[in-house]
Amino acid sequence: MAAAEDVTGSDVGRTRRSFSPRYPAWLTSPSFVYYAIFFLGPLAILVAFSLATQTGFNAITYGFDTSQFHLVTGSLYVKIFARTLVMAGVGSLLTMIVGYPIAYWMARYLTTYKMLALLLVLVPFWTSFLIRTYALKIILDSHGYLAKYLGINIMYTKYAVAVGLVYNYLPLFIIPVFASLERMDWSLVEAATDLGAKPFNAFREITLRLTLPGVVTGALLVFIPMSGEYIIPNILSGGNYEFVGNVIGDQFVSAQNQPFGSALSISLMIALSGFVAIYILFATKEERFGA
Amino acid sequence: MTSDAGGASVDIEFRSVTKRFGDLTAVNQVSFQVLQGEFLSLLGPSGCGKTTSLRMIAGFEQPDEGQILIGGVDSIGTPPYRRDVNTVFQQYALFPHMTILDNVAYGLKQKRVAKSERYARAREALELVRLTGREKHRPSMLSGGQQQRVALARALVNRPRVLLLDEPLGALDLKLRKEMQIELTRIQQQVGITFIYVTHDQGEALAMSDRIAVMSDGVVEQLDTPAEIYDRPRTAFVADFIGEMNFLEGDVTHAEDGEFDLDTRSGIVVRGRGEATKGRPARVGIRPARLHVVTGSVDGATNTAHAVVETKMYLGDEVQIVAELKGGTRFVIREQRAGTDDLHDAIRPGEPITIQWEPTAPVLLADAPAPNEGGNDD
Fold first, then answer.
1. Which letter does DSSP use for residue B9 in this model?
2. Shortest CA distance to B38 belongs to which of B197, B182, B194?
3. How far does B132 lie from chain A, in Å, by closest CA?
C-alpha cells in the first residue's frame, strides 16, 4: 500500500507524513443510520413516553410531565428496585463462585479438550432462553427429583430465581474470565510459590489479582442483564418475587400505562449506568499496569 | 550437615535421581553434589535434563526415583514454598501489577517480615544488583537488563541457601549478556550463596562457573572445573559441545608410560599422552587452536597431516582455516594472526597444506559415558 502511494503521489506534493491508513469516515454511515433508527429511536420514544401524561386507558398526551418519576421513588417501587439490584448482585456473585473454578480448570489444565469444553459451555446458548428456563422448572418443581430425593423444594422462591439467574448467565461470565486466564503467565504463580507463598496466597495475590479485569468484565456482563431480567422471575417465582422488569412488563402489557412503564425503564437504566461508570473507572486504572 | 568432599559442606546432593515424563526419561540416574558457596553450571543442549534437574531442586517437579538432599535433608515431598532455595526464572516472571520494590519484598512479605524491615532489605538487595531509583516503577517500564536485576534481587533478598538460575541471560543481547556475566560473578562472590546455573551456552558456563556439569540425554557426562572440561573432556560429546573439536579415530599401536600412538586408517600417526590400551580402537580430539599450518619440508610423519584447504576466514585476531584430510575428515584450524600474516596470505582454497600439532594436543576420549559418571568424582 505504501509503495502504491509512492507511485501515484507526485514528487512535488509529496508529504512526509508517516504512513497510517486513513479510515474513510463515510464507510461507517450505514451503521450509524441503523443505530439511529433502531437503537436511539426506541430510546427517544421511551423518553417521550416517560414524560407524557396518561389521559385514559391506552391514551396519552405528550408533554413534559415528571410526575411518573416521582411515582417511581415511591416506597413500593424503591423496594422492587432494591430487590432487583440485590438479586442481580447475589446472582452475579454466585455466578462468579460457580464460574471461576470452571474457567480456571479449563484454562490451566485442559489442553486437547480445551476448545471442546468451551463449546460445551456455550451449548446452552443454542437453545432458547425461555425453553431452558422451563426445563429448569421441571428440575426445581416441588414434585421433581430434587424435591423428592434431596428435599430441596425451592420452587417459586427467590432461591429458585437465583438458581435460574446463575444457570442462564454462567457462560457469559465464563468466557471473559477464561480469556483472561488464558493470557495468564503461570510462571508468575511458580515464582510466588518459590518465594514462599502458600498456594492460596499465590492464587489470591497473583492469579486472582491479574485476572480481576476479566472477572469484573464478566460480572458486569451478567449483572446488567440480570437486573433487567423478566423471564426468570416470572417463571421461577410464579409472581412471588418480581423484578423491575416484571413491573415494567405489567405496565406495558396489562395496565397499558406506557408513561409509568417508561419512567421505570429509564430509572433502571440510570441506576445501571452508575455501575458501568464504576467499571470504566476501574478499567482505565487497570490499563496502566499493562498487565 | 553432610561434610564429605574434602571438608566443604554440601548444599545440594542428587542421589540416583530419575525423572520421567511419560515415555521420556528426562533425568536418568543422576548423582552429584554441589558444594556450599560454589557456582555450578548445568550445561547441555535443550532436552538434556538440565532445567528438569533445576525444577526438581526448586520443588516444581518431584523425582520418580532417588533423593535430592538440600542441606543434607531429603527434600522429597517438600513443597516449593517450604524450600530454602529461590529461583531466577528464564523470563524473569516479575509480578506486573506490583512495583519493583513490592516485587523484591514479596518473599519477605510471605515470611511476615515487618513492613519497614522488608522494604529496607528490598532496597539493600536492589543496591546489591545496582538498580536504584526505580523502586516505584512497574516491571513493564524497565528494560530487559533491568528486569533481570530485579529478578535477581527478588530472589537474593530472601538469603536462600541456594540460588537457582534458569538461563537468566538468554533473553538479553550479547553486550548486555557479557556485562551481566561479570555482574553475576561479582554478586555471587559478594553474597557467598551457592549458585546453580542452567545454560546451553558453553562460553557462559566456562566464564562464570567454579564447576560445570555437562549433561546430555538425562545423564551427567562430566562434572569438572572449566579448565578440566575444556582441556581434558572425557567423552566425545563433551569435547564437541564445549568449544570446537577435531576428531580422529584409529587403533592404538603403542601404549607405554602414559604415551600412546594411534594409527588412523588414512595413515596419520597421532602421538599423544594418556592411558590407552594397545590394540584397541580409540578416538582423540584436537582443539582448532592447537593445530598449526606449516610450510616447507616436514620432518617425521608423527602428528602430521596433509590436507586441502576448503575455506579461509579472518576472524579479527584469528584466522580460521577449514581443510579436508585424506579420507574426507574435515579439520578446523584456528591460528593467531600476529606475525604469521604472510604465511596465512599464501593459503588459498584448493591448495594443499600440512598440519602439525604437539603431543600434548590430542585428548583421548571415552566412547560413551559409563552410567553414573560424574557423581562423587573427587
1. P
2. B194
3. 21
